[in-house]
Amino acid sequence: MSVAVTIDLVDPTPPFEQVRRQLTTLIETGQLVTGDRLPSVRQLAADLGLATGTVARAYKELEGSGLVTTRRGGGTRVAARPAAGPAAATLLEDAAESYLARARTLGATPEQAVRALERVARRR
Question: What is the pLDDT of residue 1?
Fold first, then answer.
């Protein structure tokens, strides 16, 4: 399976964190759903030009936060979505951090990014 994850070499965020944040966002926005299989560590590392340990660290952190499960021979899959509450709030903050980091790479201020998000939310 192919996932829309990219590494921004200009972003000072470590690559494992960029992978973790982007996968978190894909899961939280429903672009990856319960049961979806993520690429193997080796495959995603090769696709992104990263060391396997970098991707493995991102997957381990995703598993630690309950977003994915890994089974030997079964690969890494998206876990059932967490219920609303403190964990969901943390995940939402992670998605917001990722969004703001991306907005900054486009030259936007945090205020501009918030206004853009508000415009999108009003349309939905």
Answer: 57
Residue 10 structure tokens: 């200009």
Length of the chain: 124
CA atoms within 13 A on the CB side of 22: 18
How high is the pLDDT of residue 73?
86
Domain contains 107? yes
Print the domain residue range for 90. Answer: 15-123
The residue behind tokens 């917001």 is 96
Q: What is the per-residue pLDDT for 47? A: 95
- CA-nearest of 41, 39, 55 to 7 is 55
Q: What SS3 state is found at 58?
A: helix
pLDDT band at 63 (very low <50, low <70, confident <90, very high): very high
CA atoms within 13 Å, Cβ hemisphere of 75: 13
In this structure, are residues 103 and 112 in contact, taking their beta carbons and an 8 Å threshold?
A: yes
**Closest-CA residue to 33 (of 78, 87, 65, 88):** 78
| Residue 38 domain flag | yes
Give the number of domains in the chain: 1
